Amino acid sequence: MTEPIVTELAEAAAAGTRELDRVCDRIARELLADGTEPPFEVRSADFAGDALLICADRYWYWRFLDRPSVSTAAACARWLHAHVAGDARTEVAEKWALGYAFVTKDSVESGTEIEAATGAVMDGDHGSADIAYFAALYHAGKLRANFGFDELDRFLDASLLALAAGEHREDPLFVALRAFSAFGRTAITSRHAVALFERAWHDPRRTRHVVDVCLNGLWVARPFDGQGELLRDRALEAVRCHPGDHVFHYRLAVGHRMCENHDAALDDIDEALALLPAIGRRGSHKQLQEQYLAERNTIRDERRRAEWMAEQRELVDRLVADNAALRRTVQSTPVRTIEVVALFTAAIAFAVGSLQVTLTGALPLRDRAVLLGLFGAGLLLFALLVVGATWFITQVRQGTDPAVGGSAPPEVGR
Predict the structure, then answer these.
(1) Domain spans of the chain?
(2) How far apart are the first and last CA of the chain?
(3) Under 8 Å between Cβ of 71 and 121
(4) Neighbours of 180 (CB within 10 A)
(5) Among residues 56, 124, 49, 136, which one has the least CA distance to residue 89?
């Protein structure tokens, strides 16, 4: 039975992607109807070009839709460990566990159902920790897809199925899921969530799916200081490692938007839309496209709002400056008036006094000139004292009034 299937898939692959998709779907449905699992071996994790892997992927897709349960996940894990080459197994296992969890997220099993199935999952299996780990990832993926942060935390921390994963509980994907739940929980500090995030991120065994779950956690996290910058920087690192991944360009666009880098955000969301493939059953093209377009509209709205706010701030700054200038003018007008009156009064007093000395005095001309000089100097000194005192008083007031150009008082606590 194996040889005819392999031959037919090879011929379909040579005929093109549409023919391969049709043949894989037909063979998968026939195997499912016969109660037979795919009998061939898979040697790569190339979901775009490996016909055998595509056919197996289609088979398990239909089987999970038919019975979306932990028991099906355990059966899938057994087949995977028996038929997928070791160097491709991690990539295929993580993609299947999280992917099938997403498409069946509307059928979350209860805690009682999970515990009842755990015994059967663990019953005498060789490598049962691997089987339990895959099944745990599948159920955790459902809770993640439904944003059940508290339920996910309880499952990962205390469920018998999760505990049965053994040493896999320290795998970076398991830690990334713990970080995801911590980011969304009100009872957990953002510092603890970030610590789990960094632990998974810097693990040398980090895979593409670890990166995806980590960035997803930052995206859904309750707001905290530095969230946007952390998402932007880590998403930029992810894009450098996976330049053709539309999801990471989308995450980077969100990070740029949170940092108010709207032009860069638009560039990355456009790149995500351009990279989004129009094929695939696990990730709906239409759903992702709508999500990306909604983010693009949000970026554009926030950019327009930022431009409007900048214009308003500029207008307010101009109004404040104009108001300060007007206030200085209004405050200085009486001062200038006093100075002019003082000088004018001194001039009139000098004119009247000098006229009296000139017309009625009997002193010699020299004495009258000396008298007039002393009288004028006294009046000039009086006017200068008035002007100087007025100038000093107004300068002291302006130096302590921030609204007219003086320094503002220091802020409390700075």
Answers:
(1) 1-66
(2) 79
(3) yes
(4) 31
(5) 56
